[in-house]
Design brief:
The protein has 234 residues and is an alpha+beta fold. It is 48% helix and 14% strand.
Length: 234
């Protein structure tokens, strides 16, 4: 007969009905515990296990996943604590620097040590201060090295990951640098620039870095340098 169901289709319909019923009645087995002892599920390693054993196995797997997730959260929290402590120490060191040269030297050394950076670079699009400090980082307001960072300097967000050829040349010259970077825009009173933290690891600064914490460091750097570069015309 055309309206009859084949055994396979009949079984599929019954299974769907059972699954739908159990989904709408999640306490069914709690109300009928005697059925659990009569049920068994095929085990992935052969043989059969009871429904209770299968549920216990699932709970163990979920518990292991939760423990792993919790360990990741704890490690992330510890990493943030270390980062905050390092930035706090560096901020205090910068605030007590008596010259721009001293401030930049402390900045570069501390970031390299505390953040395990392979290189720290600062390029300031400004003229050197009238104090006569040796500041090769000051390359002039109209330096062509500013052009590759025009877009970055118009915003607040850091640039994370790889840099293009022109940006690499502006930061490192012909020697270049293979790896990943986080580059912050610096904007002071009549000057601007960039602070770049670099790693030879191509995935180190791919966006996972705590840039919110480092943005605080950037603000401290700008305030400190403003004290020494304040004579630069806007």
């Amino acid at each position: 007969m055309s309206g009859s169901l084949t055994p396979s289709r009949h079984k599929a319909r019954d299974e769907a009905a059972v699954a739908d019923y159990l989904a709408r009645n999640p306490t069914f087995f709690a109300d009928h515990p005697e059925l659990l002892s009569r049920l068994s599920l095929p085990h992935v390693r052969g043989g059969a296990i009871s429904l209770w054993e299968r549920q216990l196995e699932i709970l163990r797997q979920e518990n292991a996943q939760l423990r792993a997730l919790n360990a990741d959260f704890l490690e992330s929290a510890r990493g943030n604590e270390r980062l905050i402590a390092a930035i706090h120490r560096l901020a205090l060191a910068l605030l007590t620097a008596s010259t721009a040269r001293e401030a930049l030297d402390r900045l570069h050394a501390s970031v390299a040590d505390d953040l395990n950076a392979d290189r720290v670079s600062t390029v300031l699009f400004a003229e050197p201060p009238s104090t006569g400090d040796e500041l090769p980082e000051c390359v002039g307001r109209d330096s062509p090295r500013r052009v590759p960072f025009d877009s970055l300097l118009r915003g607040e967000a850091a640039l994370c990951g790889g840099l293009d050829t022109l940006q690499l040349a502006a930061l490192f010259g012909l020697q270049g640098f293979s790896g990943s970077h986080v580059v912050f825009p610096l904007r002071g009173k009549g000057w601007d620039g960039v602070l770049a933290i670099s790693s030879h690891d191509g995935t180190r600064y791919d966006g996972a870095l705590g840039t919110d914490f480092l943005a605080f460091l950037r603000d401290v750097v700008v305030r400190v340098l403003d004290r020494h570069l304040q004579e630069i015309p806007a």
